Amino acid sequence: MVRRNWLCVVLLTVCLAAGTVTSVWADDKADPTGTWKYSFTTQNGQAIDITFKLKLDGEKLTGVFIGRDGQESPIGDASFKNGEVAFTITRERDGQKFVSKYRGKVSGDSFKASVETEFGGQARTREVEAKRSDARPAPDLLGSLKKGSPDLKFAGPLAFGPQGVLFVGDTASAAVFAFDTGDRSPSGNGTLKIESIDEKVAGLLGTTAQNLLINDMAVNPASGKVYLSVSRGKGPEAAPALVRVNRDAKLESISLADIPFAKAPLANAPDPGAATKGQSQRSQSITDLAFVDGRVFIAGLSNEEFSSRLLAIPFPFSKTEPGTSLEIFHGAHGKFETRSPVRTFVPFKIAGDSQLLAAYTCTPLVKFPVAELKPGTHLKGTTVAELGNRNNPLDMIVYEKAGKNFLLLANSNRGVMKITTEGIDKAESITEPVSGTRGQSYETIAALKGVMQLDGLDKEHAIVLVRSEAGALNLDTVALP
After folding, report:
1. What average pLDDT is seen over the chain?
2. 459: which residues sit within 8 A by CB, 6+ positions away?
3. Cβ(214)–Cβ(155) below 8 Å
4. Which residue in 178, 175, 156, 181 sits closest to 167, CA to CA?
5. Confidence class of residue 3 from pLDDT cuts 50, 70 and 90?
6. Is residue 1 in some structural domain?
7. How far apart are CA 456 and CA 398, in angstroms?
8. Model confidence over 299-314: pLDDT tens digits?
9. Cα(303)–Cα(107) distance, rounded to whole angstroms?
């Protein structure tokens, strides 16, 4: 059900497979708007100061070059695509014009670019780093959360943002909540193991394990503590709860009274009574969450004709817009599909482009470019693997091992898969029926059986919820394979 890229959340960037795949975080949708300055020294020792202004309005990039006399000249050939900024500056010296072509990427308040300048029939290239001189303060994430008692009806998929902000998907309300957990300090290292955790959580909440469901699990990267979303009771009368597992294995119930929070209702959510083959569509309005570069990405179903979708909601929350409807080719089914929701996904950078890797029921693995996830549009994904039918993917993380990145995917009927990402940048979409498996290679980890949920605990370990052969639900720490 939920997604995680532990490397993303702790702001690490990892190169893999000849540098083509990295984790996604701060540069996913860097805004080049601002005043930029840098200096360089010519061959004759003269110091040159360069100043230019850029403005991004939707997908349109404009700007001006500011000369020594303060005169402004428009830039040319400006574009902003997949996080890359490109433009030209034309200047005149001694009656001759020369053109400088800029191409680079923004990271925070830094713009690293390659500049190719043509003058007198000769071209010269230099690498520069411009700094934003009118740097804007970071948004006050915690200030946007107001104390109150949220009308949370169901605690489902979980994801963490910075500063201990916990995002909770509420499928009953078709909304995403953001909570300030107040949990921002490291709490120690070491493994964590709790046998029969469902019984212990039930005891904490005053019920029995038979009347309790653990819906999801996430690790707070700021503290290393584990959070559980829980349903106390069964059916429509079940009450939501959030439980924190400290590194000393002690459990805490998180009070939802007078807690700083914000709520983002989802547009075009399925009607509460809508069902497909006896399964509630509303219960699949949110199947997974991830926080990347100031936005909450949400997978699930809408009430539209092509109901499978991905949404991106800026945080702090403002207006929520319709999502992007999704289409994939499902090799095991031998057809294109638009109504099956993403079950779990992770953010990735592939060949410099921000992507989401998503797993579906019967286990196609599909990549979607983040730059093409635009409100109200339709997007066809690239199916890079078929991992076997009669299976439901449960949870997925990405991690580094021996300098390479892998996906670790927990499944209902096919165990835990360690999937390579090597060559995924060049993988062509599967577009014909598949019997068995195809695409990205994987191995099934025999030692990991009964895994229901997983998340990255640190660089070397994952935390897992495991159903034992005897039926007990245990929380355990395992080494990343």
Report:
1. 90
2. 399, 400, 480
3. no
4. 178
5. very low
6. no
7. 8
8. 999 999 999 999 999 9
9. 37
Identify which of 275, 285, 325, 334 has the alpha carbon closest to the alpha carbon of residue 305.
Answer: 325
Considering the chain, what percentage of its residues have pLDDT values greater than 90? 74
Mark which of 114, 132, 150 sits at the end of a domain. Answer: 132
Instruction: Specify whether 303 is located in the same domain as 407.
Output: yes
- Answer whether the bond into residue 157 is a cis peptide, omega within 30°: no
Q: How many CB atoms lie within 10 A of CB 337?
A: 17
Residue 267 corresponds to which tokens in the numbers above? 């547009």
pLDDT at 4: 55
Give me the amino acid identity at 43: Q
Q: What is the mean pLDDT of residues 101-120?
A: 88
Asked whether residue 310 falls in the same domain as residue 249, the answer is yes
Tokens of 325: 């409807």
Q: Going by C-beta distance under 8 Å and a sequence separation of 6 or more, which residues neighbour residue 149?
A: 256, 257, 258, 259
Q: How far is the C-alpha of 143 from the C-alpha of 31, rounded, in Å?
A: 22
Cα–Cα nearest to 160, from 247, 225, 107: 225
Query: 269-294 burial, b if ≥16 CB within 10 A, otherwise e?
Result: bbeeebeeeeebbbbbbbbbbbbbbb
Q: How far lies 190's CA from each of 8, 224, 353, in Å?
A: 21, 10, 35
**Domain housing 377:** 6-26+140-479
Distance CA 317, CA 267 (A): 13
Residue 319, CA distances (Å) to 172, 226, 264, 361 in order = 20, 30, 8, 31
What is the rounded CA–CA span in Å between residue 376 and residue 323?
6
pTM: 0.79
Does 77 or 44 have the greater pLDDT score?
A: 77
Residue 81 lies in a domain: yes
- Check pLDDT > 70 for residue 97: yes
The token duo for 128 is: 């520069």
Count of alpha carbons within 13 Å of 260, Cβ hemisphere only?
15
Q: How far is CA 198 from the centre of its chain?
A: 28
Q: Give the integer Cα–Cα distance in Å for 31 and 295.
A: 13
pLDDT band at 141 (very low <50, low <70, confident <90, very high): confident
Last residue of a domain, one of 132, 162, 184: 132
Residue 281 half-sphere exposure toward CB, CA atoms < 13 A: 21
* Same structural domain, 203 and 120: no
d(CA 378, CA 395): 25
Residue 13, pLDDT > 70, answer no
